[in-house]
């Protein structure tokens, strides 16, 4: 096996072929082609099999990356899949949307100049190949249990927990206010990064596993036709996991902030994804959430902003600019995504922040001011300061605010004032048990840690499921003792 590895000295790094920018501007299909088997094996063989695998250390899931790279290099693909899926519930999704350049690949120990192993592309190939060969099977618990658990939220965290609990034999019920599973995987992330058939394929597998989905069913303080009271949910199930994510968009003020044509990123992306799925969206058809023929300005510098600018390009915008108050080096979004956006025709306006919005009834421009980087703040990140007399205006018919997300006020919405939250509005949990201030109610993912990566949501969901299982086992044992 050893002679198959350490090929980084003789084999150059290669990503899967990327479609030309002009072609990918025309549709919402994924921009990267699949690795062919020989190419996947060759790229996997570049792994140095280092003694301390920093790629695994810096992966939130602790994936056994060197091991499944070695199996891939040897052509032992079914074993590679078993290793990959042992620690990751959805490797085909992480292989597509994880910011590998900041996580595993960004911490590869191969020296600069030889370039890191293409971990994400190989991970994607392994699981897609496993699906093609029928190696991905539904969950089949050894023993069915009587206890049922409710999971609120069909996003990556909730789904990861659902799989882990189903493997233990629990009767798992997932509730989500949307009509399809996936949360932001389905409605927040565009198809050019994650085609929706990938998520729907997982949905079918989860249903075959015996997981019950209650879609279009929100949680509230009373029962209704399309909602269920949180108190009813607790009474119906033996344990509850809250994995709602964070959906409250951060806003921006200033003169003209209430003009028409200024929209939230999530509304914009959801409309686009629904249209791609074949849904009828009135706000898209009337142009409110459609960039066709417009001068678009996206405010923000994270991955959501990258999704918005690249979506606007595909909708046929006249021009697309991204306004960000820091420079390229300090941008929180993936470096790879910035490069893809630039190739597709997005213009980045670095070190600039909005001051006001111009227009009569509807926005016609964004008045901005130049910024400069100052001294590091308490977090170690450089502060930003305005440059005097540097105001300028960007033409804009559509402004998309991609400023991040905060938690919704769940205690108020659900009529549960005793559900404790932090000063940021996230749910307070015991860091070891994942239990909230309500007995038998657990929480995981963004609703606990704040807006973060999909891979962290999966990790939290898996860990929370393990703690729920331990608690339910303890409760079952205690009830048995009382019965005796």
UniProtKB/TrEMBL annotation:
Requisite cofactors: [4Fe-4S] cluster
Pfam family, one: Pyr_redox_2
InterPro entries: DPD_II, FAD/NAD-bd_sf, FAD/NAD-binding_dom, GltD-like, Helical_ferredxn
Limits of the Dihydroprymidine dehydrogenase domain: 24-134
Keyword field contains NADP: yes
Residue intervals of the FAD/NAD(P)-binding domain: 148-461
Keyword check for NADP: yes
Record GO terms (molecular function): 4 iron, 4 sulfur cluster binding; metal ion binding; oxidoreductase activity
Keyword vocabulary terms for this entry: 4Fe-4S, Iron, Iron-sulfur, Metal-binding, NADP, Oxidoreductase
PANTHER family per UniProt: GLUTAMATE SYNTHASE [NADPH] SMALL CHAIN, GLUTAMATE SYNTHASE [NADPH] SMALL CHAIN-RELATED
Protein name: Dihydropyrimidine dehydrogenase
Naturally occurring in which organism (per UniProt): Komagataeibacter sucrofermentans
Organism placement in taxonomy: Bacteria, Pseudomonadati, Pseudomonadota, Alphaproteobacteria, Acetobacterales
């Amino acid at each position: 096996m050893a002679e198959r590895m350490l090929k980084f000295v003789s084999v150059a790094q290669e990503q899967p072929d990327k479609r030309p920018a002009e072609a990918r501007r025309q549709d919402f299909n994924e921009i990267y082609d699949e690795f062919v088997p020989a190419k996947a094996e060759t790229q996997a063989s570049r792994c140095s099999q280092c003694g301390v695998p920093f790629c695994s250390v810096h992966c939130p899931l602790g994936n056994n990356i060197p091991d499944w790279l070695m199996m891939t290099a040897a052509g032992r693909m079914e074993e590679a899949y078993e290793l990959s899926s042992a620690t990751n519930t959805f490797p085909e999704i992480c292989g597509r949307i994880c910011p590998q350049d900041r996580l595993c690949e960004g911490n590869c120990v191969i020296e600069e100049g030889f370039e890191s192993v293409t971990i994400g592309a190989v991970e994607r190939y392994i699981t897609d190949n496993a699906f093609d060969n029928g190696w991905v099977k539904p969950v089949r618990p050894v023993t069915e249990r009587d206890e049922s658990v409710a999971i609120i939220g069909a996003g990556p965290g909730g789904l990861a927990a659902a799989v882990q609990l189903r493997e233990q034999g629990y009767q798992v019920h997932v509730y989500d206010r949307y009509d399809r599973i996936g949360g932001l995987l389905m409605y927040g992330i565009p198809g050019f990064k994650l085609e929706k058939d990938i998520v729907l394929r997982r949905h079918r597998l989860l249903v075959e596993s015996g997981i019950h989905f209650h879609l279009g069913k929100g949680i509230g303080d009373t029962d209704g036709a399309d909602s269920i009271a949180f108190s009813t949910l607790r009474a119906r199930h033996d344990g509850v996991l809250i994995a709602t994510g964070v959906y409250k968009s951060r806003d921006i003020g200033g003169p003209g902030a209430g003009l028409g044509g200024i929209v939230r990123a999530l509304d914009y992306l959801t409309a686009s994804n629904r249209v791609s799925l074949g849904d009828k969206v009135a706000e898209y058809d009337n142009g409110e959430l459609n960039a066709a023929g417009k001068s678009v300005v996206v405010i923000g510098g994270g991955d959501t902003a990258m999704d918005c600018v690249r979506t606007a390009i595909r909708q046929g915008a006249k021009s697309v600019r991204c306004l960000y108050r820091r420079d390229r080096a300090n941008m929180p979004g993936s470096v790879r995504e910035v490069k893809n956006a630039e190739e597709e025709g997005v213009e980045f306006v670095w070190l600039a922040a909005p001051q006001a919005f111009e227009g009569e009834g509807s926005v016609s421009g964004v008045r901005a001011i130049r910024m400069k980087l100052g001294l590091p703040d308490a977090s170690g990140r450089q502060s930003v300061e305005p440059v005097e007399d540097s105001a300028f205006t960007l033409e804009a018919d559509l402004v998309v605010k991609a400023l991040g997300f905060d938690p919704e006020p769940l205690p108020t919405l659900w009529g549960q004032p005793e559900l404790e939250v932090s000063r940021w509005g996230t749910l307070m949990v015991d860091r070891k048990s994942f239990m909230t201030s309500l007995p038998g109610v657990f929480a995981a993912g963004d609703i606990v840690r704040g807006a973060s990566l999909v891979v962290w949501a999966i990790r939290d969901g898996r860990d929370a499921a393990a703690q729920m299982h331990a608690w339910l086992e303890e409760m079952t044992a205690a009830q048995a003792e009382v019965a005796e």
